[in-house]
Amino acid sequence: MVWTLMSSLVPIALLIALGTALRRRAFVEAGFWPQAERIGYYVLLPSLFLHSLATAKLAGLPVLEMASALVVSTVAVAALLVLARRSMAVDDAAFTSIFQGGVRFNNYVGVSIATGLFGVTGVALAAVANAAIVPTVNVLCVLVFARYGRGNRFSVRALVRGLALNPLIVACAIGIVLQWTGWGLPAGIEPMFKALGQASLPLGLLCVGAALDFSQARQWVQPIALASFAKFALMPVAALIACRAFGLHGAAAMATLMFQALPTASSSYIMSRQLGGDAPLMAGIIASQTLLAGAALPLMVLGLAHWL
To answer: Membrane-crossing residues (predicted)?
Structure first.
């Protein structure tokens, strides 16, 4: 298991490093990366989720138990962070960045590791994980921004609209319907979605590397430490407790534990910038957690695995 996990992380680390090198050497124009992120977020990654959910062989997989463990552990850590807000010596905008750093996860890294660890089954497990966590995390983050973001006021209409237009949630919903009804994807369309989904992983990881910026990370040692403690310690422990509570074991339990120990998503910066958060701090958390994940993820997953 150690070798399998590490061998799955190596190509991910290399692609992220390549993205960083390409950006620093200006191999492509700077405007390429935001557009690549956009096509990845709105086209490629949704295609991956839709295809994997619609075509996944879910027979024999503990879908309900896995989804329940993921949702419960995510909500539990989110609640702990909100309860601990008053003890944090940061302003409200900075808290939104700490919150996102504690609960959001990098889809590209998660799908890549799950596929490397479990093959075709890993794709199905990753699809279940994303279908459970993506809506949960987005609802929680929008609520936190409504309460703590600069100049934001809570609006049920804005919340519903944001969720309804989220491409990842929409793709997961369509994929679930196609899976549940047994319709699947038409023969002429399925290869297209499969090809688009396969393209999402390498391009997404290159964009993660291009977005890394450690120049300001030293200014926010405490907030970065708080967010990383929530992400790499609290979240995996909560996932372990939830797995045991729901009787989850085997590959599904390992995938649950792994997804809850992933670094935060690079898209957190965009949400922070748009919803009144502390965007520079969010960039520092993203960069730091992506670097820390190389050591923290194997330690947490393998350290807690025997309790499963």
So the answer is: 39-56, 63-84, 113-146, 158-180, 224-247, 253-271, 283-307
